[in-house]
Sequence to fold (359 residues):
Amino acid sequence: MLYLSCDTLDPYFHLALEELLLAAETKEEILLLWRSRSAVICGRYQNIYAEADVLAAKAAGVDVARRLTGGGTVYHDEGNLNYTILANYDGSGSQYERFLMPVVRTLRQLGVPAETGRICDITADGKKISGSAQKVSGSRILHHGTLLLHADLNALRRIANGAREEYRSKGVASSPWPVTNLCDYLPGMTMEDFRRAMLTGLTAGKDVTTRSLTAEEQQAAQALANTKYRTWGWIYGKNPEYTLTRGDMTLTAKHGVITELNTAPGLIGCRLDPDAPIDAKYF
Amino acid sequence: MKKMLKYASEKPAVLCAWLKEPGDPYRKGEALCEIECDKVVRQLTAEEDGVLGAQLVEEGDSLAPGADFAEVTAEG
Fold:
């Protein structure tokens, strides 16, 4: 197993790095343990406006991002530790147990009553402490997940929560569940101690090589972050078609562009850009 | 030879994105579309060379086990 250490808090960089590692020609298992600054990150095929309060995120300086794996919307901040594992895939289904059980065992060894729940969650006393998602590409699989150590759960509930009832969409919907922080079970544990404990647990019994990213890898990830993951075209332009009904207004948009709008047909064809909002009511 | 491509998995999925448009040629192993099932995104790839005819499932629609999802002209 290769453990790649990377200390940047840029969520877009990490999403790009994951994509590059998934495409890399290797059969080696790779582990990342990383954090990001505050960010709300939707799944690949979600309607980001139904899943997150995007304008509130922007106003609060929270990054808005879209990842390449499936599943629902998550909120990251520096109190959350993400783990990413890239491994060989033999074509036999989603394999969540394969990746979740080492995490569960490690948490139990720390004294957390961790259990797997639903398809890809980890819970403690019925509350979610970790969500995960996957992408398969050829003979490789990427599995990543969150671990809420001391995240701002009020911000999570406020921002990773769109006005779903106002939207009709073919996008994949999140499945909200009550969340809690691991610090409830690990009082006083610092993030660095937690990272070290997860690293020990997830590499137990394996022959591990540890290194930092090379300059070339950093440049490649930064370039992909800039040309894809930071762009309007990816974050909002990949939004599936949806209809927003709000009062008398009915708005339909596809791939981030208004296709129907009964109250202002002159805006048909306009791009919906939260960084330059036409009007907040359209989001 | 015209044929239908079937979704061969036992679990229903969502067809998230077409990666080929009608009329596009493709080679064996190329991805035709992306699907999501159980929060896993993966691609349905071609088992032989061909040309995509009709997309029988729209983006965002469910894909049932055994459902036809594309009409193609296979070169096999």
